[in-house]
């Protein structure tokens, strides 16, 4: 069951917080790294369809994003990770923008400018990206390009913090460049929305280390093989920051993004695993077998929302009748993001999980204090 | 099908019925063209039209083959969706739908039989393709009423060499800005 909202307290300087927001479609992570510093990874919006969930929460607890947020990360360019990202970045005026090294490419920028010149859809990811490019130009700044084993941000002092990118690998970046080049060759074909790439090998997985604690944010990184995905991360092992206690499960818990070594080599025993569900077309994640597979690894498994229902919504009226006659099946996309919040004092082994706005426990353990 | 006269729809999925003369839809169909998402005023030149007197709404331009509509009567648009194809199979396709009649409504996803798309448009059904779905009543001149569903895929012109060169130039400038900013960053940290 979700807790009543009693979360309007700013974490102390030596507390670590991970907040995961996600409706049935979309996700965003807000991390408090201690000492007043926050970072945001990806974005989804609240039920008004405009306000980034991370900004709404920061406003709720009275934190000024213009000074407190140090990093805004776009793990990859899929619609379910970038809604509201431009507004978020504009509000976080002292933050550095991070995106994949795979996008540091003239062909990709050309493609996004071509598609953005005349927007094809009301909610286009290209518009979001172009708005961020415009903001970067205004600030005369450049993104921090993420690639395997690169430090994205660090802080010394009493509570040291380092943010590492674990991916993409060199091989993935090279392949991405080639694919952008191929897309540009397609002149003469009708304009259409740039389809999302099917693979998530270019996704930016992150290791966040605060004091002696580590957190693994899996983005949508898929298992891959050889020099791709988790296989590449696990093969290089260049980042040695200790095993993580908290894991944002990669790609909504799907089997294609799992690798047993993630659980043995990168995570502590019984980690706190958090995820957002995903629903697109006839794909609904995590599946029952995904949940069972993860439950074998940890009893602490939490989701921001119930896994999407395949049942069609029953409505009445002429429009609804026509829709039922025309479509074989349909489902609505939940738009109020649920919220899983994990807080942990960096000097203590215990943590606390709170669930808000429809977030649920999928594992054996309930919310509350966790060992 | 219901008889003529206004139909009260109670599912809360739209605000007011929109009424489009059929010959107007025919005119839009013949004009075709591309919409400019940022411009709200509507002109015939753009291939768009205002519908209704109190609640003006742009109807996206539609470009397709021989229109098979009756010469007289009205089409009352009860609900309009903008859709993007997510995946396409042999007989069906999945699409994400944005309710453009009631923009605050939740987005939906649905699976459509390909046979709901006219034969002329079927080759356009590919991931990323955009279409419009109109649901409404056709009131004919002889006062008969039919409930209708119309799916029309957008035909967009191909990118030209000029489109690509222009975008490439902007991208090149942008990349130079990034590289300059990176150099400045390095200098300031040294």
**Which band does the percent of strand residues of chain A land in?**
25-35%
Mind telling me the CATH superfamily name of chain A? Ribonuclease Z/Hydroxyacylglutathione hydrolase-like
Distance between the termini of chain A: 20 Å
- The main sheet of chain A orders its strands as 6-5-4-3-2-1-17-18-20
Question: Could you state the oligomeric state of the chains shown?
Answer: heterodimer
Largest sheet of chain A: 9 strands, mixed
Overall geometry of chain B = elongated
Write down how many β-strands of chain A occur, each being a DSSP E stretch of 2 or more residues: 20
Instruction: State which percent range the strand residues of chain B make up.
Output: 25-35%
Count of spatially separate domains of chain B: 3
Task: Explain what you see.
The complex is a heterodimer of chains A (371) and B (190). By secondary structure, chain A is an alpha/beta fold. Chain A has one domain: Ribonuclease Z/Hydroxyacylglutathione hydrolase-like (Metallo-beta-lactamase, Chain A, 4-Layer Sandwich), CATH 3.60.15.10. Helix content of chain A is 26%, strand content 26%. Chain A has helices at 53-60, 65-68, 79-82, 85-91, 106-117, 125-139, 170-184, 229-236, 260-266, 288-295, 318-326; strands spanning 15-22, 28-32, 38-41, 69-73, 96-100, 144-146, 150-155, 161-165, 206-210, 213-217, 244-248, 267-275, 278-280, 283-285, 301-303, 329-332, 338-345, 351-356, 360-361, 368-370. In chain A, the strands form 3 sheets. Chain A has a 9-stranded mixed β-sheet with strand order 6-5-4-3-2-1-17-18-20. In chain A, strands 7-8-9-10-11-12-15-19 form an 8-stranded mixed β-sheet. In chain A, strands 13-14 form a two-stranded antiparallel ribbon. In chain A, a hairpin with a 5-residue loop joins strand 1 (15-22) and strand 2 (28-32). In chain A, helix 5 (106-117) packs across helix 7. Chain B is an alpha+beta fold and 190 residues long. In chain B, strands 1, 2, 3, 4, 5 and 6 form a 6-stranded antiparallel β-sheet that branches. Chain B contains 2 helices and 6 strands. The N and C termini of chain B lie far apart (77 Å). In chain B, a hairpin with a 3-residue loop joins strand 2 and strand 3. Chain B has 3 domains: 8-56, no CATH class; 75-153, Beta Barrel (OB fold (Dihydrolipoamide Acetyltransferase, E2P)), CATH 2.40.50; 160-190. The radius of gyration of chain B is 21 Å and the shape is elongated. The chains are: A alpha/beta (371), B alpha+beta (190). Strand 16 (329-332) of chain A pairs antiparallel with strand 4 of chain B, so a sheet runs across the interface.
